[in-house]
Amino acid sequence: MEYLVNVLYIVAFAMFIYGLMGLTGPKTAVRGNQIAAVGMGVAVVATLIAIRDTSNWVLIVAGLVIGVVLGVPPALRTKMTAMPQLVALFNGVGGGTVALIAYAEFLDSDGFTAFAHGESPTVHIVIASLFAAIIGSISFWGSVIAFLKLQETLPGRPIGIGRLQQPLNAVLLIGAVALAVIIGIKAIDPTGPTSQWWIVGVLVLAAVLGLMVVLPIGGADMPVVISLLNALTGLSAAAAGLALNNQAMIVAGMIVGASGSILTNLMAKAMNRSIPAIVAGGFGGGGVAAAVGDGAAKTAKSTSAADAAIQMAYANQVIVVPGYGLAVAQAQHAVKDMAKLLESKGVEVKYAIHPVAGRMPGHMNVLLAEADVEYDAMKEMDDINDEFARTDVTLVIGANDVTNPAARNDPSSPIHGMPILNVDQSKSVIVLKRSMNSGFAGIDNPLFFADTTSMLFGDAKKSVAEVTEELKAL
After folding, report:
1. For the chain, what is the radius of gyration of the CA atoms?
2. Where are the domains of the chain?
3. pLDDT tens by residue, 285-297
4. What's domain 293-473's superfamily in CATH?
5. What global pTM score does this model have?
6. pLDDT in tens, 242-287
7. Contact yes or no for 441/400 (Cβ under 8 A)
8. Helical H runs in 294-405?
9. Which residues are marked as active site?
């Protein structure tokens, strides 16, 4: 029986890894998800077989049914505009589950003193369990705040207590670790029963730390925060798997933790910021900064759908820069139709994707792929930036911060040093926005006041459709 369980776990691991490989491109992403899901099903079957007490199967199956009932409907009904907060919430549930597992094991084993079916706990098992409790709790409550900010139930601006923020976070972390050390000492060399309030204290301090870490982080950093919390959830799951001797949790957790860590690092570099600086908070969604330089004294020029159509129809190359405004308007299909019409007129159309455009990693790629935009037409920032200088028209749809030249030109700007799309180097720029409101980072964009920029105000989907109709008439 043990041999069968191990074989099934190996099959599950292979499917996890193969499924993850499928996520490298939009064409294979759906299949990759399906393969990984089947792999998880295999892992669940293996776990059921490995359980000695079959009476627990009822509880496990009941949990699976509840999870399906609560998880599938939101996944099917959630619009792409709300996908970032759904990802944050689902990720948080994983971290919360790990924290509850650690708590349940503490109660079941009398403070870890009779861990794993009556066996005496080893140091690494106790450390792994307590690590999972702390990180899982931080991940869950941090993800809740990320969800509320993305849902705009909480404001996107940083919410903190100023200079006391970091000392408070340090006290919370030290307190949680100190309680964990006490629990570990009692578990390895018990001198009497350990009160459950010790583990409750660990979970509560970690929960407050999770809240205090994410609250001061502004909306502009949310894509990085989601990725970081995802990595933490993976690490906590791997730690819990180590404590429970569950290979499926170890491998799956390490895959999530490693991939999330790599992605977090890449996104932080894309913003020219360190991960500690992001966690320290205070950026994104703050006070609105005025446009700088000559543009500050200028008024943005508005244009019409007809003028925009003429500009693009006689261009050699048009670059579309999608942002969160495209997601809100659900304009990806309209953009695809417009691009198809432009291409029929001999205009080359490309899409410039900034690593942190939107509100979660890969947000724009998923949106465009949903509209059957060719993957080869989606260009990453490093691949497309040199082309803006020889581009006739760049169409910016709801992208604010990732096109802000202040990041390159204004040392006083909060985003100075962040790599951006060189949209301002295009011969002509058309920006689609509802209004002149600032982006998620809360700062104005001098691009909107540039001599080569025209603003097409209105709902992005409607505006693109109007441009398409005008193109048909040309």
Report:
1. 25
2. 78-280, 293-473
3. 444 444 444 444 5
4. TPP-binding domain (3.40.50.1220)
5. 0.79
6. 888 888 889 889 999 998 899 888 888 777 777 787 777 655 444 4
7. yes
8. 305-313, 324-329, 332-344, 363-370, 381-384
9. 401
